[in-house]
Amino acid sequence: MCQNPNEHKLNPSHFEGSTEEKQTAQEVEGGFAAYTQGMKFFDPHVHMTSRTTDDYQALADAGVVAIIEPAFWLGQPRTGLASFKDYFASLVGWERFRSSQFGIKHYCTIGLNSREANNEALAEEVMEILPLFLQKEGVVGVGEIGFDDQTAAEEKYYRAQLELAKEMGLPVQVHTPHRDKKKGTERSMAIALEHGLAPHMVVIDHNNEETVKSVLDQGFYAAFTIYPFTKMGNERMVEIVKQYGSERIMVNSAADWGISDPLAIPKTAALMKIKGISDADIQKVTYQNALDSFAQSGQINEKDFIDGLEIDQSLKFNGNTVLRGGQAPRIDKNSIFIR
Fold first, then answer.
1. In 3D, which of 317, 262, 328, 307 has the Cα closest to residue 95?
2. pLDDT value at residue 8
3. Could you tell me the pTM of the whole model?
4. Which end of the chain, C or N, has fewer beta carbons within 10 A?
């Protein structure tokens, strides 16, 4: 969730690398696929509601086989409960269908985001409907929740949703704040522990060099968002994996309506390969750790997507299709005819 794109100084993400490293980055940008042939990726944080159908095609072409879409801040405040209901319904309905039309398995996490927790009257109403949506098929956690401005209201609803996650046995996806990140991250973990959440059931997201050691030392999963300007660049990500290894670390794109890149994971994998990180470690941080953490929901079966989904773009969702006038559907079946 990119909320403060102008705060470069508070959240430095530009990598001050050598001339050689900058040249390498340009090569990866231009031809990352040459380094990732045969790799499969799982993006545990991407807001496809904000992206085009072309992005789904690009993700599929790049080897992304599964994604998780957290409920988030859409860019302007929602004014009523109905808009939350429709949004949550789209995450388990239309967006899942749209993803399937490109062979990508779509999961989601559902929650009241920190920014809108500050509208307490509406937040109370949203809390009432969360249990209903958290029981839907393919909902793999409570998220993204946590702190933005670190207000009392944000803490109130963060705590309430931790209790909900504990009650329903679901993993938690925690958004850490852009401002005063270290303090907000420590506070998020302390509250989760206070509520009795096992660290292995909590994914602390949007980490950086300041927070990673404490997150790993306390047993939580540490997620890193490759996002221009406000979060991490992938050259910094490579250095973190070199220093801390691949245990409980995962990479995501958090691609949304801001200037972001849904191909951040395959591009980062390519850069890791160039920089000498082993294929086994790359697989863990770009696929396996995301799978292991969110599969604790009981909602993920790798067999459902590891070999790709069968694509049939002639299908419709509530009468709607991803195709537009004149476009021919792609159907992957065992037909003898090739047309």
1. 317
2. 40
3. 0.90
4. C
pLDDT, one tens digit per residue, over 194-227 is 999 999 999 999 999 999 999 999 999 999 999 8
User: For residue 218, what is the DSSP state?
Assistant: T
CB atoms within 10 A of CB 24: 17
Q: Are 251 and 285 in contact (CB under 8 A)?
A: yes
Interval 261-290: pLDDT, tens: 999 999 999 999 999 999 999 999 999 999
Cα gap 224→240, rounded to integer Å: 10
With CA atoms as reference, report the closest residue to 170 among 293, 9, 81.
293
CA distance 97 to 69: 13
The two three-digit tokens of residue 200, written as one number: 């292995």
C-alpha distance across the termini of the chain, in Å: 42
Cα 127 to Cα 131: distance, rounded to the nearest angstrom? 8
How much is the pLDDT for 337? 53
Q: Which residues in 159-178 are b (16+ Cβ under 10 Å) and which e?
A: ebbbebbbeeebbbbbbbbb
- Separation between Cα atoms, residue 17 and residue 129, nearest integer Å: 48
Contact in structure between 218 and 189 (CB atoms under 8 Å): yes
Q: How many CA atoms lie less than 13 Å away from 265 in the CB half-sphere? A: 36
Q: What is the number of residues in the chain?
A: 339
The sheet that has 172-175: what strands, in order across it?
41-43, 64-70, 105-110, 139-146, 172-175, 202-204, 221-225, 249-252
